[in-house]
Specification:
This protein is elongated. Helix 1 packs across helix 2. The protein is mainly α. The chain has one domain. About 85% of the residues lie in helices and about 0% in strands.
Length: about 60
Amino acid sequence: MGYFRILAAIPGFFISSLILWGLWGAFADDIGVETISYAVAMLITITLWLAIAPLAAVGRRKK
């Protein structure tokens, strides 16, 4: 994994956070939870990325 691939993932992180924030706000009233701020959406996104990245790396190596 090169440095350029890491740099290419940065915009994806912010876009993923923005999508999560927007979808959470759209469905929060329907499911009865509070809305979240963009900063919290970023924390949730990085947590998911850190949990899923090792699984994706292992899956990629087995092929």
